[in-house]
Specification:
Layout: H1 3-28, H2 36-64, H3 71-98, H4 101-130
Helix pairs in contact: 1-2, 1-3, 2-3, 2-4, 3-4
The protein binds protoporphyrin IX containing FE.
Protoporphyrin IX containing FE binds next to helix 1 and helix 2.
């Protein structure tokens, strides 16, 4: 199994645990409902997407009888996806609880990094599965 596959799966499971704890905190005390954005995105961009990236990189090219186009791009995507997610959620939370507009703009910047990571996944997977060779 490639290193980036193992890493995606490790982070996915870690995000599941963190997001679940935040979910229970929100149920236990409404003051934590400000973390709803964090919870939902840790679940969907963290747990769900990272699991799909990891498992997808490992098995989809094999299903198609092809090699992954670029392991370097997949490795890069790992760092962009995780940095983007943590930065987006961290600065969103800082903006929410302090009311500082600049934090929200930084959160949006990390959100754009997250989108860049998604674009890398799309490119790598599309060219691997549907490219020539
Ligand atoms: C571990 C069990 C979970 C608990 C205890 C939990 C708890 C919660 C709570 C308390 C809210 C806020 C509800 C409100 O607006 O009052 C919420 C929202 C949300 N949760 Fe979870 N959740 C869990 C699992 C999941 C999973 C597995 C996913 C998706 C993979 C998920 C996705 C979402 C989303 C997208 C929202 C936002 C919904 C909205 O804004 O209307 N949650 N969750």
């Amino acid at each position: 199994m490639d290193r980036f596959v193992k890493r995606f799966i490790f982070m996915s499971i870690t995000y599941l645990l963190a997001a679940s704890i935040i979910g229970v905190m929100m149920l236990g005390n409404p003051k934590y409902l400000g973390l709803k954005f964090v919870h939902s995105h840790l679940m969907l961009l963290g747990w769900v997407s990272m699991m799909i990236y990891g498992v997808g990189y490992h098995i989809l090219p094999r299903f198609a009888g092809k090699a992954l186009k670029s392991k370097t791009l997949a490795e890069t995507q790992f760092w962009l996806a995780n940095g983007g997610l943590i930065g987006m959620l961290g600065f969103y939370t800082a903006a929410y609880y302090t009311g500082t507009g600049a934090y929200m703009r930084v959160s949006a910047l990390f959100g754009a990094i997250e989108v860049a990571s998604i674009a890398l996944f799309v490119y790598n997977m599309m060219t691997s599965l549907y490219g020539k060779s």
